[in-house]
Each structure stands twice: as structure tokens, then as C-alpha cells.
Amino acid sequence: MHITAKVDYAVRTLVELAAAGEALAKAEYLANAQTIPHKFLEAVLGDLRRAGMVHSRRGPDGGSATSHTRSARCCGARATG
Fold it and tell me: What are the domain boundaries of the chain?
């Protein structure tokens, strides 16, 4: 089974966001922590936002965080099913 880079980066991003808890994580931090190209990460975060798995806030105090209920339900079902 082949896992695409986009799926790999999405899972790694969700794991990093889950580890951050309720705190908002900046894209720069996520990219560096998981060695994901920043531009690719922006696309992945956009897809995760549209899927309802991540929410974000713009501005100097902004960042991204998991939308716990949906991400736990979607990822848990796919990981175990």
C-alpha cells in the first residue's frame, strides 16, 4: 500500500497539533517540527480546515489547532477500521 506525501504530512500535522493540546501552533513551528515544506504544509492545513479537522485563527497570536470532536471521530474510525 502506497501512502502519498500529502497523507503522510496530514497525519504528522494532526499528531503535532494533538500534542500541542488546546494551544494554537504556528505553521512555521509545525513545518520545522515535522520537517514538512512550508508551502506544502499550508496546502495540507487548508485541506484539513475544509474537512473540519483543524481550525485556525489569523494574526500575530494565531495558529492552528485540532477540532477535537471531528478529528478524533474521523481519524479514529479510519485508523481502526
Answer: 5-80
Tell me how crowded residue 9 is: count the other CB atoms within 10 A of its CB: 22
SS3 content of the chain, % helix, strand, coil (to 5): 60, 10, 25
Topology of the domain comprising 5-80: Arc Repressor Mutant, subunit A (1.10.10)
Q: Which residues pair with 56 in a beta bridge?
A: 64
pLDDT digits (tens, 9 = 90+) for 16-51: 999 988 889 999 999 999 999 999 999 999 999 999
CA-closest candidate to residue 64, choices 34, 24, 33, 36: 24
- As a whole number of Å, the CA-based R_g of the chain is 12
Tell me the β-bridge partners of 63: 57
What is the pTM assigned to this prediction?
0.77
